[in-house]
Design a protein that fits this description.
Length: 276
Amino acid sequence: MGTFLGIIGFICFSVFVILAIVGAIRKNGTFKKRIALAGASLVLMIIGAILTPSSDVTTTKEKQKEQTEEVTKKEETKKQVELEKEKAEQLAAKEEEEKKKEKEAAAKEEAEAKKKAEAEKQDIPGTLGIDPNEFKKRFNSAADEFQANFYINDLKINKGEVQDIAQVKLNDNIFLNITVNKADGSIRDVGMIAKGDGTSKSGTDIIFTMGILITSTNPSLTPDERGDVLKDLGLMDQGVDILNIDKETVRNNIKYHLMGSEQIGIMFSAGDAREE
């Protein structure tokens, strides 16, 4: 509607202006009337222009809409970028933590390898090739086999200046001395000190303990081969005087030594035959 009025007003304004000019030239008295009509047409044209929607306004609204959409899109893009950045930072932190753990594990492994290498460099005078825990396990298993009435319940290692030592009381007549190498924690030797109380049971316990020690330090020996060890040590000799005996024998690089003394009693040991 506004556009239509504007066009009509423009046409009328143009016509009446021309007619007014013609009337002024001809001086026929129509000039004032036509000028008034031209003014009315101008007013009509202005009203039409006012009522006509401006294309600039539409364009401006469209631009504002586009700008709003663009700003929204940029904000969404920014949020997405920030989210991706946060995920990347979390992933990087996780990878860094994993690398740190791997580095710590590698450092620990290297330290242990270094410690082991240093231990191997230290002088180990002799070893039975087993640690105290393994010896305890073997001893108690052999005690079951021999149906002995004593076991190693607690094996406490006491630190020494040169070698560590553990002492075990099996009963009132039998004691064990265990020497442990500081370098690698292996047992250097095991010794038994025993003294009978005049009963056959005390003598049997002593023989059983020797058999258990042979079994613990040389598990691959058969029962007959264990008996041969005792035989080599002179225990099977007729009329043997155990308090004056002093013999040794070797099996699988393990040296067994039996010695008797009236003051101390019976001493039996198992150690590395290669030890000088």
